[in-house]
Specification:
- By secondary structure, the protein is an alpha/beta fold.
- Helices cover 19% and strands 31% of the residues.
- The strands form six sheets. The protein has a 16-stranded parallel beta sheet that branches.
- It starts with a strand and ends with a helix.
- The chain binds uridine-diphosphate-N-acetylglucosamine and calcium ion.
- Calcium ion binds next to loops.
Length: 458
C-alpha cells in the first residue's frame, strides 16, 4: 500500500484579499501549508505540492521541507490541480489534502488511511458534521452511501440543509484518478474543474466509495479568509499552550500568552499574561517571564528571569541571568551566568561575562565585557562613527562610573576604574583610574545673588 500525498496549494486565495499567496499566511510563525505538511502521517512516503499562484514564493518557503513540486499553469479548480499532479505521482495510492486546512492532525489522517485500506475502497472522502455547513461542499448520501459531493453554489435548498460536509481530503487509487480526471466537465461561470466530481463519477462506475468522519469538527476547518485565519490561529494557540501546561509549564493566563509552534519551554517555568515567545526560542527550567515581554529566536538557560516589557531577540542568556524591566537585547547578545541587565538597557552584538551588571539606562553595542564588571547608569558605547562599527573591550572587574561614554575602538584593562561623567577616547591600562571631566568651579555667594534676583522679579 505505497501511498503518496498531494497538497493543493496553487490557488490564489481571492477571499484573503492579499498580495501573499493564501497558503503562506502565517500561523504561530509557520506558513499555513507547513502545518498541513507536518500533519501528513508516517504512512505517506512522498509529498507533492501543487503550486501555481505565487509559485516562486511558495516553493522558496517550502525549500527545506523535502517535497516535490508540480506546477499548475492556470488555476482552473481543484480537479485541474490534481491533473497537474498526476504525472508526478509514482505511488498507486494518493492522499489529497488542501493546503488551507492547518487544523488537521496526523492522527486523523492516519485513521482515514487505516479505514480506507481496511474497507478495500477505491476512494474514501474525509467528511465532517458542521452545525453551520455554509461555504463547504455537501456530502449527498443515498441509503446511507455517499453518492456525490455538491458545492454550495450548485446545491438544491434541500442539499444545503445537509450538515455533513467535504473536508477536501481524500484517499484515491491512482488508477481511478487517471480515468476520472480527463472525464471531468468544467463548471460555469468560471469554467473550473471540481475534484469533488470524481466522487459521483466513481459511484456511477461501481467503484467502492466510502466516507470517514472527523471526530473533532474543528479539524475540518478550511481557511478561506482572514476571519477564518484568526480562528485557526486561536485553535492552534490553544493546542500549543495546552501541551506546554501538560509538560509542566505554568501559564498564568493562557488566553493571553502567544507561543509559536517551534518554541520549547522547560518545566516549572512561569509565563505571566501577555507574553510572546516566538521563532526558535528555547527556554529552560524554572525561568520566570513577566508580562508584556517578547522573546524571539533566543536561548534562556535554567533560572533566567525576564522582567516586564522586555524584548529579547537572537540572544543567549546563561543560567541565572536577570533581564529588565524594559530591557532590549538585540541579536548576538550573550549574557553569561548571573549577569544582570536592568531598566532601559539596550545590548547589541555583545558579550557580558559572569556576574557583570548593567542596571540602568545604558547602551552596550559591539562590546566584550569581562566578569564582574559594573556598568554605571547612563553608560554608552559610542560604537558607530557614521561609517563603521567599532569594538569596545572591557576587562574583568572594571568599574565604569555613571554617564560615561566609551568612544570605540577602545580597550579598558581589567580592574580599571572610570570616573563618572568621563568621555573615554584612549585605551585605559589595567588597575588605572581614568577621568576626563572638566574641573569643578565653585564661586562663593553667587547662589544667593541668583535667588535674590528671582525674588525681585516675583
Ligand atoms: C473545496 C471543495 C469543497 C470543500 C472545501 C473544504 C472543491 C470544488 N471544493 O472548496 O467541497 O468543502 O474545499 O475546505 O474542491 N487549489 C489549487 N488550484 C486551483 C484551485 C484550488 O491548487 O485551481 C487549492 C487551493 O490553493 C486550496 C485548495 O486547493 O489550498 C482548496 O481550494 P479552495 O478554493 O479553497 O476550495 P474551496 O472553495 O474551499
Ligand atoms: Ca478552502
Amino acid at each position: 500500500m505505497s501511498l503518496g500525498a498531494v497538497v493543493l496549494a496553487a490557488g490564489k486565495g481571492t477571499r484573503m484579499r492579499s498580495s501573499i499567496p493564501k497558503v503562506l499566511h502565517g500561523i504561530l510563525g509557520l506558513p499555513m501549508v507547513v502545518w498541513v505538511l507536518r500533519a501528513l502521517p508516517k504512512e505517506v512516503e512522498r509529498a507533492l505540492v501543487v503550486t501555481g499562484h505565487g509559485r516562486e514564493t511558495v516553493e522558496e518557503a517550502l525549500a527545506a521541507y523535502g517535497v516535490v513540486f508540480a506546477h499548475q499553469g492556470e488555476q482552473r479548480g481543484t480537479g485541474d490541480a490534481m491533473k497537474a499532479a498526476l504525472p508526478h505521482l509514482r505511488e498507486p495510492w494518493v492522499l489529497v489534502v488542501p493546503g488551507d486546512m492547518p487544523l488537521l492532525s496526523a492522527t486523523s489522517l492516519a485513521s482515514l488511511i487505516g479505514y480506507h485500506f481496511g474497507e478495500g475502497a477505491d476512494l474514501t472522502v474525509l467528511t465532517v458534521r458542521l452545525e453551520d455547513p455554509g461555504g463547504y461542499g455537501r456530502v449527498v448520501r443515498e441509503g446511507g452511501k455517499v453518492v456525490a459531493i455538491v458545492e454550495e453554489g450548485e446545491a438544491t435548498p434541500h442539499q444545503r440543509g445537509i450538515k455533513e460536509v467535504n473536508t477536501g481530503v481524500y484517499v484515491f487509487s491512482r488508477a481511478l484518478l487517471e480515468e476520472a480526471l480527463p472525464a471531468l466537465k468544467p463548471h460555469s461561470p468560471k469554467g473550473e474543474y471540481y475534484l469533488t466530481d470524481v466522487v459521483s463519477w466513481a459511484v456511477s462506475r461501481g467503484c467502492a466509495v466510502r466516507a470517514w468522519s472527523l471526530e473533532d469538527p474543528r479539524e475540518g476547518m478550511g481557511v478561506n479568509d482572514r476571519v477564518q485565519l484568526a480562528e485557526a490561529v486561536g485553535v492552534l494557540r490553544e493546542r500549543k499552550n495546552r501541551s506546554l501546561m501538560e509538560e509542566g509549564v505554568t501559564l498564568v493566563d493562557p488566553g493571553t500568552v502567544y507561543v509559536e509552534a517551534d518554541v520549547e519551554v522547560g518545566p516549572d517555568t512561569t509565563v505571566y499574561p501577555w507574553v510572546f515567545l516566538e521563532g526558535r526560542t528555547w527556554i529552560g527550567q524554572g525561568c520566570v517571564i513577566r508580562s508584556h515581554s517578547r522573546i524571539v529566536n533566543s536561548v534562556l538557560e535554567r533560572g533566567v528571569t525576564v522582567l516586564d516589557s522586555s524584548v529579547v531577540e537572537g540572544a543567549y542568556l546563561a543560567h541565572g541571568v536577570s533581564v529588565g524591566p524594559m530591557a532590549h537585547l538585540r541579536p548576538e547578545t550573550r549574557l553569561e551566568e548571573g549577569v544582570k541587565v536592568g531598566n532601559f538597557v539596550e545590548v547589541k552584538k555583545s558579550t557580558l561575562g559572569r556576574g557583570t551588571k548593567a542596571g540602568h539606562l545604558a547602551y552596550i553595542g559591539d562590546a566584550t565585557l569581562g566578569e564582574g564588571v559594573n556598568v554605571g547608569a547612563g553608560t554608552i558605547t559610542c560604537n558607530y562613527d557614521g561609517f563603521t562599527k567599532h569594538p569596545t573591550t572591557i576587562g574583568d572587574g572594571v568599574f565604569i562610573g555613571s554617564d560615561t561614554q566609551l568612544v570605540a575602538p577602545v580597550k579598558i584593562g581589567s580592574h580599571a576604574l572610570i570616573g563618572a561623567g568621563s568621555t573615554i577616547t584612549k585605551d585605559v591600562p589595567e588597575n588605572a583610574l581614568a577621568l576626563s571631566r572638566v574641573q569643578q568651579k565653585v564661586i562663593p555667594h553667587h547662589g544667593v545673588l541668583y535667588f535674590k534676583k528671582k525674588r525681585g522679579r516675583g
